[in-house]
Amino acid sequence: MNFLFLCTGNSCRSILSEAVFNHLAPAGLQAISAGSQPTGRLNLGAVDQLRRHGIGVDGYASKSWHDLPLTPDVVVTVCGNAAGETCPAYLGNVVRTHWGLDDPGEVRGSTEEVEAAFEQTYRIVLARTRALFALPLADLAADRAALKLALDRIGAILP
Predict the structure, then answer these.
(1) pTM for the complete prediction?
(2) What Rg, from alpha-carbon coordinates, does the chain have?
Protein backbone atom coordinates (compact mmCIF):
# COMPACT_ATOMS: atom_id res chain seq x y z
CA MET A 1 0.00 0.00 0.00
CA ASN A 2 1.41 3.39 -1.04
CA PHE A 3 0.66 6.65 0.76
CA LEU A 4 1.10 10.17 -0.62
CA PHE A 5 1.53 13.03 1.85
CA LEU A 6 0.44 16.16 0.06
CA CYS A 7 1.08 19.78 0.97
CA THR A 8 1.25 22.93 -1.10
CA GLY A 9 5.03 23.55 -0.92
CA ASN A 10 6.26 20.00 -0.14
CA SER A 11 9.11 21.36 1.96
CA CYS A 12 8.16 20.82 5.60
CA ARG A 13 5.02 19.02 6.86
CA SER A 14 4.69 16.55 4.00
CA ILE A 15 8.43 15.82 4.07
CA LEU A 16 8.30 15.23 7.84
CA SER A 17 5.33 12.90 7.32
CA GLU A 18 6.97 10.98 4.48
CA ALA A 19 10.26 10.54 6.33
CA VAL A 20 8.70 9.46 9.64
CA PHE A 21 6.35 7.06 7.84
CA ASN A 22 9.16 5.44 5.85
CA HIS A 23 11.42 5.28 8.90
CA LEU A 24 8.80 3.28 10.85
CA ALA A 25 6.99 1.47 8.02
CA PRO A 26 6.59 -2.26 8.08
CA ALA A 27 7.28 -4.20 4.88
CA GLY A 28 4.77 -3.52 2.15
CA LEU A 29 4.05 0.08 3.08
CA GLN A 30 5.72 3.09 1.48
CA ALA A 31 5.18 6.84 1.55
CA ILE A 32 6.01 9.56 -0.91
CA SER A 33 5.29 13.25 -0.69
CA ALA A 34 4.57 16.00 -3.16
CA GLY A 35 3.19 19.50 -3.47
CA SER A 36 0.78 21.33 -5.71
CA GLN A 37 3.24 24.25 -5.83
CA PRO A 38 6.55 22.79 -4.61
CA THR A 39 9.19 25.18 -3.30
CA GLY A 40 11.99 23.08 -4.79
CA ARG A 41 13.85 22.90 -1.48
CA LEU A 42 13.49 21.24 1.90
CA ASN A 43 12.83 23.37 4.95
CA LEU A 44 16.03 23.37 7.01
CA GLY A 45 14.07 23.20 10.26
CA ALA A 46 12.35 20.02 9.07
CA VAL A 47 15.69 18.54 8.02
CA ASP A 48 17.22 19.38 11.40
CA GLN A 49 14.22 17.89 13.23
CA LEU A 50 14.46 14.62 11.33
CA ARG A 51 18.18 14.36 11.95
CA ARG A 52 17.69 15.04 15.68
CA HIS A 53 15.46 11.96 15.77
CA GLY A 54 17.87 9.79 13.80
CA ILE A 55 15.92 9.86 10.55
CA GLY A 56 17.97 10.24 7.40
CA VAL A 57 17.02 12.79 4.78
CA ASP A 58 18.99 11.47 1.81
CA GLY A 59 16.78 11.11 -1.23
CA TYR A 60 14.02 13.42 -0.03
CA ALA A 61 13.20 16.39 -2.23
CA SER A 62 10.47 18.95 -2.78
CA LYS A 63 8.58 17.82 -5.88
CA SER A 64 5.38 18.35 -7.80
CA TRP A 65 2.42 16.03 -7.63
CA HIS A 66 2.84 15.79 -11.42
CA ASP A 67 6.21 14.02 -10.95
CA LEU A 68 5.17 11.07 -8.80
CA PRO A 69 6.96 7.77 -9.42
CA LEU A 70 3.80 5.78 -8.63
CA THR A 71 0.08 6.14 -8.11
CA PRO A 72 -0.79 6.17 -4.40
CA ASP A 73 -3.53 4.14 -2.77
CA VAL A 74 -4.08 6.81 -0.08
CA VAL A 75 -3.62 10.59 -0.27
CA VAL A 76 -3.13 12.38 3.05
CA THR A 77 -3.25 16.17 2.91
CA VAL A 78 -1.36 17.80 5.75
CA CYS A 79 -2.02 21.49 5.18
CA GLY A 80 -5.22 23.46 4.81
CA ASN A 81 -4.38 24.72 1.34
CA ALA A 82 -3.80 21.24 -0.09
CA ALA A 83 -6.97 19.91 1.55
CA GLY A 84 -9.08 22.21 -0.60
CA GLU A 85 -7.27 21.53 -3.85
CA THR A 86 -8.46 19.05 -6.42
CA CYS A 87 -5.92 16.28 -6.82
CA PRO A 88 -4.86 15.55 -10.38
CA ALA A 89 -7.19 13.19 -12.21
CA TYR A 90 -4.35 10.73 -12.87
CA LEU A 91 -4.29 9.87 -9.16
CA GLY A 92 -7.50 8.00 -9.82
CA ASN A 93 -9.99 6.81 -7.27
CA VAL A 94 -7.74 6.93 -4.20
CA VAL A 95 -8.75 7.12 -0.54
CA ARG A 96 -8.33 10.71 0.64
CA THR A 97 -8.01 12.01 4.18
CA HIS A 98 -6.88 15.23 5.84
CA TRP A 99 -4.40 15.31 8.73
CA GLY A 100 -4.03 19.06 9.18
CA LEU A 101 -0.82 20.35 10.72
CA ASP A 102 0.20 23.88 11.60
CA ASP A 103 3.26 24.93 9.60
CA PRO A 104 6.25 25.13 11.96
CA GLY A 105 8.19 26.81 9.16
CA GLU A 106 6.03 29.91 9.63
CA VAL A 107 6.73 30.26 13.36
CA ARG A 108 8.65 33.42 14.22
CA GLY A 109 10.35 33.88 17.54
CA SER A 110 13.36 32.71 19.44
CA THR A 111 15.37 29.69 18.36
CA GLU A 112 13.78 27.76 21.21
CA GLU A 113 10.25 28.69 20.12
CA VAL A 114 10.90 27.68 16.52
CA GLU A 115 12.50 24.38 17.61
CA ALA A 116 9.54 23.73 19.92
CA ALA A 117 7.12 24.22 16.99
CA PHE A 118 9.05 21.71 14.87
CA GLU A 119 9.17 19.26 17.79
CA GLN A 120 5.41 19.56 18.31
CA THR A 121 4.75 18.90 14.62
CA TYR A 122 7.10 15.92 14.73
CA ARG A 123 5.27 14.51 17.79
CA ILE A 124 1.91 14.81 16.04
CA VAL A 125 3.25 13.13 12.89
CA LEU A 126 4.81 10.37 15.00
CA ALA A 127 1.60 9.74 16.98
CA ARG A 128 -0.53 9.62 13.85
CA THR A 129 1.93 7.37 12.03
CA ARG A 130 2.02 4.94 14.96
CA ALA A 131 -1.78 4.92 15.05
CA LEU A 132 -1.85 4.21 11.33
CA PHE A 133 0.51 1.25 11.69
CA ALA A 134 -1.64 -0.11 14.54
CA LEU A 135 -4.60 -0.44 12.15
CA PRO A 136 -5.40 -3.77 10.51
CA LEU A 137 -4.47 -2.29 7.13
CA ALA A 138 -4.68 -5.60 5.25
CA ASP A 139 -8.30 -5.94 6.33
CA LEU A 140 -9.16 -2.28 5.76
CA ALA A 141 -7.70 -2.28 2.24
CA ALA A 142 -10.76 -4.25 1.12
CA ASP A 143 -13.20 -1.79 2.73
CA ARG A 144 -12.45 1.72 1.47
CA ALA A 145 -15.18 3.36 3.57
CA ALA A 146 -13.86 1.80 6.78
CA LEU A 147 -10.29 2.72 5.82
CA LYS A 148 -11.28 6.35 5.21
CA LEU A 149 -13.14 6.51 8.52
CA ALA A 150 -10.13 5.10 10.40
CA LEU A 151 -7.75 7.50 8.64
CA ASP A 152 -10.03 10.48 9.33
CA ARG A 153 -10.05 9.58 13.05
CA ILE A 154 -6.26 9.44 13.08
CA GLY A 155 -6.19 12.97 11.65
CA ALA A 156 -7.65 14.23 14.94
CA ILE A 157 -4.92 12.72 17.13
CA LEU A 158 -2.86 15.21 19.11
CA PRO A 159 -0.23 13.95 21.55
Answers:
(1) 0.93
(2) 15
